[in-house]
Amino acid sequence: MIVQPSSGTALITGASSGLGATFAYHLAALKYDLVLVARREDRLRNLGDRLSQRYGVRTEIFPADLSSDAGIIQVEERIRARNDLTLLVNDAGFGGGGPYFRADIIRGADMIHVHVVATARLTRAVLPQMTERRRGAVINLGSVAAFYVLPGSVLYGSTKAWVVAFSRGLAHELKGTGVRIQALCPGFTHTEFHDAPEFEKMKDTSIPGFLWMPADKVIEKSLRALARGKTVYIPGLRNKILASLPRIPFAGPIIRRIARRHE
Ligand SMILES: NC(=O)c1ccc[n+]([C@@H]2O[C@H](COP(=O)([O-])OP(=O)(O)OC[C@H]3O[C@@H](n4cnc5c(N)ncnc54)[C@H](OP(=O)(O)O)[C@@H]3O)[C@@H](O)[C@H]2O)c1
């Protein structure tokens, strides 16, 4: 049984697959109307139609590329124009990149846009309507990677560390306003995230099965934690242990050696 944080309308970025689409299912089941954002319009449309038919909720499809300022501004404007959001899920993201000194800087800048600029700007766009109504929540997708020094994924880890720090600071600022913030930090989760060619080795071999979590479980746990008001939330005991490993003396070099095998 999922605990309902508060119903209303939720805007989800990255809703065309994985954790974002799973958020959409869970929130539709809780009777949220939805605004679904990502680049692949056909996927959003299929999802929106299915959720409307199954749960009787209203769904709006809003295709946008969050790696561009233009795409981010379009979503910001939609958030302000609707003026009815009770939940924003900043989920859109992607991984990979390889060693930074060899990395494609355009892809890197895209990652900063999707993980950092879009999260900061969309959150800023939605907060005035939420604080005025004294009701609402923002869930920002971090990662267990936020707690690591990860050679080969430096930009990924550091943008996710920003998500965690941003959410922590914001949660303090918003105390007493009725608005909740969550940095959701999953570990290895079955989605399309690891379908990128650079994750081929990781998928097939070296990550033990017990470390993977189904997307459904991540979302159920996230929504329960939101109802409890947990700001930095790591779903599951195994992921909590994973996230705390970097604080253990001598664990750092071992983790970095494993990470280098995936470069
Ligand atoms: N899976 C994991 O193991 C894991 C672990 C920790 C954290 N996370 C985080 O969870 C979030 C969701 O990832 P996922 O695992 O669900 O992966 P996924 O299945 O690949 O989904 C990623 C979503 O982000 C969207 N997206 C990517 N680039 C975009 C752009 N430029 N503009 C708009 N939307 C964009 C994609 O939609 P379009 O391609 O249609 O645009 C897709 O809907 C990410 O922030 C990721 O970092 C994942």
Integer tally of domains: 1
Tell me, what is the CATH class? Alpha Beta
Ligand inventory reads: NADP nicotinamide-adenine-dinucleotide phosphate
* Averaged pLDDT: 92
Query: Could you tell me the radius of gyration in angstroms?
Result: 18 Å
Number of strands: 9
Strand sequence of the main sheet, in spatial order? 3-2-1-4-5-6-9
SSE pattern: EHEHEHEHEHEEHEHEHH
| Name given to the CATH homologous superfamily | NAD(P)-binding Rossmann-like Domain
Helix/strand-derived category reads alpha/beta
CATH hierarchy: architecture: 3-Layer(aba) Sandwich
CATH topology: Rossmann fold
Distance between the termini: 40 Å
3D shape? globular
- Treating each run of at least 4 consecutive H or I residues as one helix, how many helices? 9
- Runs in which pLDDT lies below 50 for 5 or more consecutive residues are none
